Amino acid sequence: MAESMPTFVVVGHPNKGKSSVVAALAQDESVRIEPRSGTTTQSTAYRVEVDGHGVYRLVDTPGFQRPRRALAWLRERATTAAERPAAVRAFLEAHRESGEMVDECELLEPLMDGGLVVYVVDGSVPYGPEYEDEMEILRWTGRPGLGLINPIGDEARHLDSWKTALGQFLGVAVVFNPVAADFEQQMVVLDQFAAIAEANGVGVRRSLSLLKQARERAHDRASRVIAEWVSTALTERVEKLMAKDAIPTAQEPELRERYEQRMRELEEKARHEVERIYRHGRLERAGEGLTVPGEDLFDVDRWYLWGLTKRQLLTTLTTGGAGAGAAGGLVIDAGLGGASLAAGALIGGLVGGAAGLTAGLRYGDRMADMKLGPVTLAGRRVTYGPSKHPNLPFVVLGRALDHQGRVARWSHARREVMALDPESPEAIWAREGMEATRKKLVRCFSRIQRSRGDEGAIEGLYGVIRPLMNRTDSEH
Ligand SMILES: Nc1nc2c(ncn2[C@@H]2O[C@H](COP(=O)(O)OP(=O)(O)O)[C@@H](O)[C@H]2O)c(=O)[nH]1
Ligand SMILES: [Mg+2]
Q1: Is residue 330's pLDDT more than 80?
Q2: What counts of helices (H) and strands (E) characterise the chain?
Q3: Which residue intervals define the domain G in the entry (predicted)?
């Protein structure tokens, strides 16, 4: 198997995104990407594997430094095309010994060892003769490959001239932005790599399907982490022992603060797990571990961003069917605009399906109830939570999906700090066809609450969450 694994050698001018291409296609955040040129001085091979099965190898190389001189040297040693690869071998031998043209040696060696060329250029600058020497040297190796146009800064103004030029030297040119590319776009460009490899006798297509399977498994695992976290959010509580004669209500602010802090920590933990699943364990997030206004889990004024709107909540809970009542906490208060809603068709569902529900759709003031234990010698146990707020699980899940979506789409070549921008959440609950999902979720949440988070109930939630992951790979 190992013999049939192709090696793609990523070459080009310095600072055109070679390392970025390697990072993106190897899904490896450890590949060094530097704003300064010339920081890559040695070739490094990255082996891409799934379950120990090698799929392909990517070699990051230093850029060409002295292509003109290198080509002049080669031209003196070959008169016919048939002699050219031998001249390149002679070049390697001569310069390895003298220690000259180290960069050229580093990048040519893996090619002469059977690698395939991936020649990276910047599509935002015009094509020019200075690239011709580089491509001519690549041609001399006799190695097949393709040109990869990186539209740096999202601009590929000079696409046509590049395509024409690359086409003559390398046959095929593809456009690929390693920083912006999501998984689908990576698969598209890898398919093109695979075609070149197949045409040269190295089978790889079957292996690419392994990458797709691995992606599915990552979604499975992320769904499981998120289902567990939502279940915990539905059942979590904090407690303390207070003195027998202490005033119970005076304990509430402290308990609530501890409850919220605990929930924030659990959310952070779930986020880290999801990041690790998508191989982004070193990802930096803005405001990580802090309570960022507008981004904080308990900034209830912003809950409409991640959870259901009042109207969605109302329709979902009242028509959610069995168990909606147990999901709890529904009464129309004045703040909800009860009059206009009551006048509408909703009231039928309310009266019929959710009679006897208590407490408010009121936002914010009451997250959970306090419960007092019996007085004992030691004192009195007070607990806070779990929250019965009907929107809390939607907020928790909406935030988790928003984060998961960003992480799953984040290229491993992208090295800036990720902002979980509360101004542009995915608005997942408003999507077409989500009403049915929202109703299923209400039933799942209710079952988790009633069973205090048993395995079967979590499994049920997993079953509803898992299909939502597919959106990260099928939309742009
Ligand atoms: N905006 C943007 N910057 C890029 C892109 N590709 C590379 N860069 C930047 O260009 C610089 C050099 O990238 P690198 O991958 O290290 O290039 P290399 O020297 O060819 O390996 C880094 O600062 C990258 O962040 C791209 O597609 N878009
Ligand atoms: Mg580099």
Answers
A1: no
A2: 18, 9
A3: 8-91
Give the Å distance between the CA of 272 and the centre of ligand 2: 28
Place of tokens 């597919």: 470
In 3D, which of 154, 434, 447, 474 has the Cα closest to residue 312? 434
pLDDT recorded at residue 424: 61
Residue 114 C-alpha to ligand 1 middle, in angstroms?
A: 26
**Domain boundaries, given as residue ranges, for the chain:** 2-203, 217-474
> What pLDDT is stored for residue 303 in this prediction?
84
* Over residues 148-164, mean pLDDT: 86
Question: How far apart are the CA of 110 and the centre of ligand 1, in A?
Answer: 22
Which ligand is closest to the CA of 120, given by its number?
Answer: 1
- pLDDT, one tens digit per residue, over 216-248 is 999 999 999 999 999 999 999 999 999 988 898
Residue 375: CB atoms within 10 A of its CB come to 11
* The ligand 1 atom nearest the CA atom of 38: 19
| Closest of 196, 230, 297 to residue 461, by C-alpha | 230
Q: Ligand 1: which atom is nearest the Cα of residue 180?
A: 27
Whether the Cβ atoms of residue 98 and residue 115 lie closer than 8 Å to each other:
no
pLDDT of residue 311: 84
Give the type of residue at 205: R
CA of 41 to the centre of ligand 2 (A): 8
* Residue ID of nearest Cα to ligand 1 atom 15: 17
More confident residue, 61 or 331: 61
Is the distance from CB of 230 to CB of 461 less than 8 angstroms? Answer: yes
pLDDT of 449 > 70? The answer is yes
Q: How far is CA 362 from CA 47, 339, 375, in A?
A: 54, 15, 33
Q: From CA 165, how far away is CA 120, in angstroms rounded?
A: 13
User: In terms of CATH, what superfamily is 2-203?
Assistant: P-loop containing nucleotide triphosphate hydrolases (3.40.50.300)
Q: Which residues line ligand 1 (CB under 6 A)?
A: 14-20, 33-35, 37, 40, 63, 150, 152-153, 177-179
